[in-house]
Amino acid sequence: MMARRLLFLGPPGVGKGTQAQRLVGELGIPQISTGDMLRAAVAAGSEIGRRAKSFIDRGELVPDQVVIGVAEARLAEHDASAGFVLDGFPRTVAQAEALDRILERLGRELELCVVMEVAEPALVERLLRRSKLEGRSDDNEETIRNRMRVYREQTEPLVAHYRRRGIVRELDGLGSMDEVAERIRRAIAA
Ligand code: B4P
User: Is the CB–ligand 1 distance for residue 67 below 6 Å?
Assistant: First the structure.
């Protein structure tokens, strides 16, 4: 049995978004990326986008209340009832606690937390390469370093939160996208 309620954790650029997208096609479940949703809100010029933009551009986390509202609304949509890949949410302990409450209300439970790791120099290199292709406002070196620091300080502690529940699978994010996808497939099926 494949796990279908999944959370991807890992530093910026580790491949969460890339791998979550691949899984969508394979498992037929939606990718829930707060980063993508916030960027779409910025592009649309909505109230949420206006509140999020300066945080994103500095590589800081958008305030919990904003992000939790966005994630909660998305998780309640019909297509998430059969499963989902959370990518980029939760990023703080307060968000993880909110996620627990949201899922409990919906009568669902997280099955697996896939933690990906890659050493920082390779991550910075990947994100700088992406900046040339996509021109994302937060993919410059100074902001990338800040995002790494924010990850280590605020998000990495969540690994322990989920480890206590026995649902963590850790894997190496270095290698080709196909190699990483295969490691994820094995972790999900195990
Ligand atoms: P995100 O959009 O989540 O940004 P990210 O961490 O850089 O994405 P990801 O890690 O998924 O990138 P990927 O590896 O796929 O967040 C951006 C900002 O939004 C945050 O800084 C914050 O301000 C805000 N935000 C989002 N969620 C929030 C929350 N919950 N709370 C508060 N604020 C929040 O891609 C990286 C690159 O690597 C790609 O170019 C890809 O092609 C490449 N790559 C992937 N796999 C590879 C491989 N195996 N080998 C070589 N290259 C690879």
Answer: yes
Q: Is the peptide bond before 12 cis (omega within 30 degrees of 0)?
A: no
Ligand 1: residue of 24, 34, 114, 152 to mutate (most ligand atoms within 8 A of CB) is 34
What's the pLDDT tens digit per position in 49-88?
A: 999 999 999 999 999 999 999 999 999 999 999 999 999 9
Q: Give the closest residue (by CA) to ligand 1 atom 46.
A: 15
Entry pTM: 0.93
Q: Are 168 and 115 in contact (CB under 8 A)?
A: yes
- Per the CB < 8 A criterion, the answer to whether 70 and 37 are in contact is yes
Right CATH for 5-183 from 3.30.572.10, 3.90.700.10, 3.20.20.140, 3.40.50.300: 3.40.50.300
